[in-house]
Amino acid sequence: MAALEVRSPPDPAEDPGPSASQTGGGWIQLPIEQSLLLIGVMVAANAGVLAFALRPRQAAQPSDGASDDAIIRQPAPSQDRALLAVSILFLAAAAVAVIVSGSFTPTESAIYVVVAIATMSVVTVTEVLPVDAMGSVRPILQAAVAIVAVTLLVALTGGVGSPFVVGYFLIVGAATLSADDRSPALLSVASSLAYLFTIALAPADQQSGIAGTAWALFNVLALALLASIATVIGRQQRRANQAAMRLADFDPLTGLYTRTHLFDAISREIARSGRVGRGFCLLMVDLDGLKPINDTFGHQVGDRVLQAVTEVIRRNVRQSDLAARYGGDEFVIVLPETASAGAQVLAEKLRREIGGLVLRADARPVEVSVSIGLASHPEDGTAAEGLMASVDAAMYESKRRGKNQVVSYVTMAIAGGGKAV
């Protein structure tokens, strides 16, 4: 029967513990059937465990009820490049170590085959296959390829005493880049099971004994400890990244989206509108006289006014709408699949409710009103810049006409003999 030679650890009777200099011991005759069983079980087990660990979660809803696709983040390309570089360097180092040491001659050819296939698999999953098409399957494939490759190298180079057990530690350490807090622990479990399964496949008369078992358990414990550290570090890193992203996407005073996020959302809505064939509207809400309020009552009162206006906007927009703070006293609302008539109704409702706010400072009333501009896509602009110019012009026309009113860009253009941008 054809057999694949697998390196065994040193005889425990001669030396109580494996070391790098003891890799020239005897060889385990591992049948091809058992080798194929090892590969198949590892792939299936890892795919199942990692599918559970890395399954997609429902994204958190933003504070103004925008849709999930407005806040989902794609993995950073720099992370993929770093993982690819580490994977290739590890595989290359393994091949060089085998060549230089000359300690694994009986399985040298099989090691080179494993290194070559693993390298091609890593490059294919990371660089060739499309990210969007793979979705949540991609990290599962990446982890499965890594664990299978390391396990085969361990099996071919001595089992318990293999110098390539360090590959498992690299896999668990890389889990700090995952978006899931459970990934380090589950990758540690998957790596430990693969490692122990490889050792268990050795024939009974060539088992590693008590010393080898103790060494194997030590490696498993070390993987668990590393997973704990990786979980803590990864969690702190993700919190820092989330805080940075929130500062970039959300206004700290009102909790609405920022100007930068607004333009991205408008561009996405223009693309979506083109696909479904339905237009949308923009509202620009500008506070009348915020500067006199700040000058008279102080900026703290001005902030209270901005927050009160924000609450009115929140109460009246739909979950599919998106509200953003565009400037110091300006807000922009994106209304998907909304005709001008519907946007006009909402704008008038906002104007009335904001005008009815009862705010007091130093026992004196603080009067609040807004001027609102309205623009429609595609009538008033086919690009984000054109739409924003149109809604801005409509808002300033509202100011010019006496403030505290709603002006549509189309109405303004007709009255002034102008044309939509």
Describe how the helices and strands are arranged.
Blueprint: E1 3-7, E2 27-31, H1 32-53, H2 77-101, H3 108-128, H4 131-134, H5 137-156, H6 166-174, H7 183-200, H8 209-249, H9 259-276, E3 280-287, H10 290-297, H11 299-316, E4 322-325, E5 330-335, H12 340-355, E6 359-361, E7 364-366, E8 370-377, H13 384-400, E9 406-408, H14 409-416
Parallel strand pairs: 8-9
Antiparallel strand pairs: 1-2, 3-5, 3-8, 4-5, 6-7
Textual characterization of the structure:
This protein is of the alpha+beta class and 421 residues long. The protein folds into two domains: 3-249, no CATH class; 259-416, Reverse transcriptase/Diguanylate cyclase domain (Alpha-Beta Plaits), CATH 3.30.70. The chain is built from 14 helices and nine strands. The chain has helices at 32-53, 77-101, 108-128, 131-134, 137-156, 166-174, 183-200, 209-249, 259-276, 290-297, 299-316, 340-355, 384-400, 409-416; strands at 3-7, 27-31, 280-287, 322-325, 330-335, 359-361, 364-366, 370-377, 406-408. The strands form three sheets. Strands 4-5-3-8-9 form a five-stranded mixed beta sheet, sandwiched between helices. Helix 13 links the parallel strand 8 and strand 9. The longest helix is centred in the middle third of the chain and has 41 residues, at 209-249. It is elongated, with a radius of gyration of 32 Å.
